[in-house]
Fold each of these.
Amino acid sequence: MPKYLEWKTYAKYAKQYGEITYLNVFGTHLVFLNSRRMVHELFERRSSNYSDRTTFPMIVDLMGFGWALTFQGYGEWWRRHRRAMHDKFHPSAVEAYKPIQIKHTRDLLRRLHKAPEDFIKHIRHTAGAIIMESENDPYILTAEKALNAAGEAGVPGRFTVDMLPWMKYIPEWVPGASFKKQARIWRKYILDMADLPFEHVKAQMANGTAQPSFTSTHLERLAAAKYAPADAEQVIKNTAAVIFAGGSDTTVKTLITFVLAMVLFPDVQKKVQEELDGVLGGVRLPEFEDMAALPYTIATYKEAMRWHPLVPMGVAHAATQDDVIDGYFIPKGALVFGNSWFLLREEADFGPDTEKFDPGRFMEPGRRDPGQTGAFGYGRRVCPGRYMAENSLFIAVASILQNFDITPTRDSSGKEVMPEYEWTSGFFSSPTDYQCTIKPRSKVAEERILSTPAEV
Ligand code: HEM
């Protein structure tokens, strides 16, 4: 089983074997769906059978990530978490976040102007601030560590304990059980990620300084309820944490991919800037109301999601019962993956030359939306944060490119140095840290950035 850049191997299998591929790893059945037809049939039409998750001995039992609805089995406990999240993240609910997204994106412009070399840090800060509406960088760092750990541990086959669950009982000191020590270290980040922000909001509520937030509104509602299940507070804490987890690193990594694409594909950058200048007249900063007039800008963030999807192999769904599709038997408990990376490169859906970063492909009729082709996952488990995420991506791309040029760095002789990076392996994939130059496009852009209110 591939442990690095695994989606490349699975794409090769897809080309070799067709719409469905199967691997048996120590008795674990892994099924890869390599066509839109297959994905639709299993994840949408037969969704009641393909919405479960596997047990995750490493991530859940040893590392303690069971609080995240992402890893919960299909059932009432998952449904309660999903409902709590949906309540605040359905398409009309996310309208409420737009002023916050605008406010923190404008702050991002100022940060980029002040210390452009720290662009990754600034993007991370902004995404975290949008989610938390706060400056709580320690929590963002904890979340980052926890998610990196989950990303590493989530690769199918990375840890043998996922294939041989009895191994979780091996004591840490036994030679070959170093995964137990690793899990113990990671467990602390993962539990802190849920506990610390929740305790912080509760403390603020107790001393009357809490801002309205997911946690505070749900806790207030709970306090006022005549009846609530004993574990209702647990659901609020878990859901708040998963929102933080989902929101603090996913958008960040997609934006880091976008910035890289701008360095590598300068013609795209110019086209977005022309569109933005035409609509905004160089006078004001972008607003969400401009979206309808900025199709190429929208196409650019969508292309970032397609060109290198954040979750290249999706998150595996598990089959609840035995099933048969086109004569292929899928056993109960099989882990079923939508082969997103491969599907997002299908020329029938996205036009020619799908290795190239080309938002122009979405300007042609009949092109698929990456968000509905695997970039946000599938069926009943599809990403519940997707509406908010797309808004964050749009406003960041529009605001950054209206005001900055993103170019390669230069060496001492003035020659351009292309960024050095690799794609990270694991459940999440994004470029490793790289360098580029981010400079205001003009004096006017600089004044525009600096003249927006300094306080956010
Ligand atoms: C560009 C940003 C994002 C991308 C590319 C993304 C992608 C994904 C993918 C591929 C899945 C797996 C779906 C499946 O199992 O089929 C997922 C699940 C999930 N995402 Fe996102 N996501 C993003 C942003 C967010 C945000 C902002 C939040 C929270 C505010 C969030 C919260 C979640 C949660 C809670 C799940 C688990 C759903 C479940 O298991 O039922 N995501 N996301």
Note: The mean pLDDT is 92.
Amino acid sequence: MRVDVIATVNEARSDDFLHKTAIVIDVLRATSTIVTALEFGSDGVIPVETVGQAKALKSGREEELLGGERYGRKIAGFDLGNSPFEYMKEQVKGKKIILTTTNGTRAIQKSHKAQHILVGSLLNAASCARAAASFKRDIVIVCAGTQDQFSLEDGLCAGSLLEELLAHESSLEMGDFARAMLLAFKQCKGRLPEAILSAANAKRMVRQGWKADVLYCAKRNIYDIAPLLTNHVLESYRPPQMRQACSK
Ligand SMILES: O=C(O)[C@H](CS(=O)(=O)O)OP(=O)(O)O
Ligand SMILES: [Mg+2]
């Protein structure tokens, strides 16, 4: 099995995903928010690229919510923003969420040619790796990045996924960028919050008042689900138990 890591969404070409499993990462914050929504009982998340697409999809049924951000803030007329804390509430239970964010949902769209599309974050790295390994295909990990720039927290999450994948597949082949992310992760595994807080995207988010979000998104392996895209909806998938992975 081969794993490659793509540094930003704009470096991804749709043909890179053919016949493969894609894992899309946007630690701050889209994929952490998606994992949280599903963990807290949302019925499914529909990721879309534009605000117009999100509004057009909303059918007016009570069991649907519009979520997302532009410039980090809730979009006018939407029910929810992009903070994971908004998705822990009773409000999301049993609801489908139509979500559009600047980087994360765009990266999910970009992976549409993959055979399987999983959503990864630090919160669910072990279960996401377990799900990906169970599909027995080559894997492409896409770091969404921030407005077309590489983001360290996405790279560290890719490294965490690689460490977990190696526990399932000792003969994993990987490209040099993937190897670099694995080494970077191993280097700061014991101090992930500090490493993430030192990076540009987190610094900007802290300035905007989102420090609690950054610290929450830096927690590793606290949830055991792997969002899997099925008919355009991300649903909670609990991967089969396989060989014991690294976890902590
Ligand atoms: O809301 C977020 O965390 C970001 C906003 S920004 O583009 O980084 O300002 O969106 P995301 O798609 O989760 O990266
Ligand atoms: Mg982001």
Note: The chain has nine helices and eleven strands.
